[in-house]
Amino acid sequence: MSPQALLPSPGDSPPAQQQAAPQQDQAGGSALELLDSFLAVQRERAAAYRRFDAAFRAYLQNGAEGPYRHVMGQLTAQFQDCSRRVLSVEAALQSTGQDEAAALLRAVQENEREKLRLTLALQALKAAHAQQRFSWQHEEAAVAAAASLAPGVADLLQGHLCRVGCVHEAPTDEPTQAEYAGAVRESYQLLQGTITAISEALEEVQQLQTDLLEQ
After folding, report:
1. Which burial class, exposed, middle or buried, applies to 101 when counting CB atoms under 10 A from its CB (0-12, 13-18, 19+)?
2. Residue closest to 39 by CA, chosen among 84, 74, 89, 110
3. Across all residues in the chain, what is the average pLDDT?
4. Tell me, what DSSP letter sits at residue 143?
5. What is the DSSP secondary structure assignment for residue 30, as one 8-state letter?
6. Which ranges are annotated Low complexity under compositional bias (predicted)?
7. CA-to-CA distance for 7 and 78, rounded, in angstroms?
């Protein structure tokens, strides 16, 4: 099993990034006002991610899934609304001939979708590890415990770990420890790439604002 196999397909858009409806009201205002509206949405997204991260960290610490799922449900609706508003601003910019600005918003929107997909993938991987769902985690714990026992007992336990029929025998579709580590590492790298792309696009949007002010 390759590390890529542990990640969701890029074509599988998370529910939180799907459009709420096929028809939307188009945002109004000048190009400057539209860009201000877009940047306000991005600030809202950043705050939502901070809340999402805090909820997930609390879930890892206390194992209480209910509050985490509650926050996830709330943020799903919030991310949907953010996407709807950005698409509305993009359409308004296109209608006023601001094609460059509209293209930047489209790039941000696509990277935000990928950012959410990778964030959810990382959370799923971390949650599985925290809950010790992998057989190799139990082997590590048993070996560590055996190391503190008398030599004869330690040897007996070590031998048991490798026997067929052990209660912790790995399922055939379970990733190895190396595959898990590779998937986490790759997810972090891809996530950093999307964050960088979003930041660069936002810098270009801010430069467009400056140019419009000077006109």
Report:
1. buried
2. 89
3. 80
4. H
5. -
6. 8-27
7. 24
Token code pair at residue 70: 């509650």
**Alpha carbon distance 116, 42 (integer Å):** 14
Which of helix, strand or coil describes residue 2? coil
For 111-141, give one letter per residue: b (16+ CB within 10 A) or e: bbbbbbbbbbbbbebbbebeeeebbbbbbee
Domain ranges of the chain: 3-133+197-214
Q: 105 is written with which tokens?
A: 């918003």
> Is the whole-model pTM more than 0.85?
no
CA–CA separation, 70 vs 76, rounded Å? 10
pLDDT tens-digit readout, 170-198: 455 788 889 889 989 999 999 999 999 99
Per-residue tokens: 55:
């909820």
pLDDT band at 82 (very low <50, low <70, confident <90, very high): very high
- Structure tokens of 193? 């790439």
The CA distance from 100 to 112, in Å, is 18
**Collapsed DSSP state (helix, strand, coil) of residue 189:** helix
The answer to whether 85 and 27 have CB atoms below 8 angstroms apart is yes
58 burial via Cβ count (<10 Å: 0-12, 13-18, 19+)? middle
Q: Three-state secondary structure along 80-117?
A: HHHHHHHHHHHHHHHHCCCHHHHHHHHHHHHHHHHHHH
Sequential DSSP letters for 43-78:
HHHHHHHHHHHHHHHHHHHH--HHHHHHHHHHHHHH
- The helix (H) or strand (E) run that includes residue 132 is none
